[in-house]
Fold this protein.
Amino acid sequence: LRTRWFPSEVQGYKGLAELPFFEIQDGRLKVVVQDLPASIDFHTHLGMVAGPATIDYLWETPEVHYLIDCDGTDPPCTFDMTDYVNGIATEEMLAQMEREVLIGGLFGKGSIQTHTLPNLAAEMDDMKFDKAVLLPIAMNLLKPDDMTERWKDAVDKSEFKERFIVLCSVHPKDPDAITKLGHYKDQGYIGIKFHPMTQRISPDDEASMELFEECDKLGMMVFMHAGPTGIEPEIFREHLRMEKYVAPVETFPEMPFVFGHSGARDWEGALKIAMENENVWLGIHGQSVPHLRTTISQFDNERLLFGSDWPFYPLAASLAKVLIVCDGRKALRDKILVQNAQRLLARFLTTPA
Ligand SMILES: [Zn+2]
């Protein structure tokens, strides 16, 4: 198989226009691959607010300020496609991200005001994405703990209702976890987002396992943030060890688990579990070009899902790597960008995605 040569690093996200797949048009990065399918992004978020703070999720702004803002520094950061995606961030960029997450989450101020539905939809249009799965996180810290309701409400009020699938989130240690999950199921939610770091709990914790058991009973799926990203506080890293993901996937073999970030820095650990458990799907967000190539050569490519982790990063950051790895392999590309996601979603949705 002959593949074209591509640069392994560019300057800033906008530097991705150096690749033959993208162009800058009207100041925006746009994909220019003619035969791309209408794709599905399985890993997106809106602005994450907690407690009394609010943002206008229906506001449209000319630019998005990503949480890892490669174009926001002068000069722009080096976007290195051979590294795990957060490897592009300087210390200063990571400190900036932490400040933005905090003031955004607590006060609804700063870059979070650009993490809105019209902004995500506009970027999906630029990148030829038809649909996206939104992943809220119940944090069990501040009341109201209602990110799920806020995002669903925004989607329902927007003009993009049919383009977004909102998962729900229940904190495993919420005393009403099981009741809340039942209500979500009744309202049509098809799965939960589980985040060991943000929720400060291990996947194999008794409370997590009880929640997964109920998801299994209700016929839902579980999207898990999987693996250490290397930038989280040390104290949470224990929850993210890939060994801790084995018990859930083995105990509930009929229920699909999506490993978001595909194990992140422990991609080999995640790959091993996915190869041994047919209910595990790899959400490939963040993985480098070399790691994607290895994964594709070793794994069942029917269980790979595209994700961007917007608004941490632009859609193009992940799309570029998939287009490089799948250059000359359209069938594989279309599985990763849309068909696998459609097949998984079809098990849960009454109308096809
Ligand atoms: Zn995420």
Remarks:
- The pocket of zinc ion is lined by residues 43, 45, 135, 309 (CB under 6 Å).
